[in-house]
Amino acid sequence: MPVRSMLSVRLGERRLKITELARQTGISRGTLTRLYHDEADRVDLDVLSRLCAALGCTVADLLEYRAEA
Known about the structure:
By secondary structure, the chain is mainly alpha-helical. It has helices at residues 7-14, 18-25, 29-36, 45-55, 59-62, and strands at 3-5, 63-65. It has one domain (3-64): lambda repressor-like DNA-binding domains (434 Repressor (Amino-terminal Domain), Orthogonal Bundle), CATH 1.10.260.40. The longest helix has 11 residues, at 45-55. The protein starts with a strand and ends with a strand.
């Protein structure tokens, strides 16, 4: 898939755990775990908005597009 979740990188930079982020944002651990492991098929705009607010970043910091060769 050409779109990749960068949540694991952002959490690593902040030394933040999925459980703490779930507590801060109200996003389920399951959703965050799928994003963390880059296994999500889709992401709601509300989820992206909450993540950006909690992590102080933009959508471009959370998702990366790689053109398929």
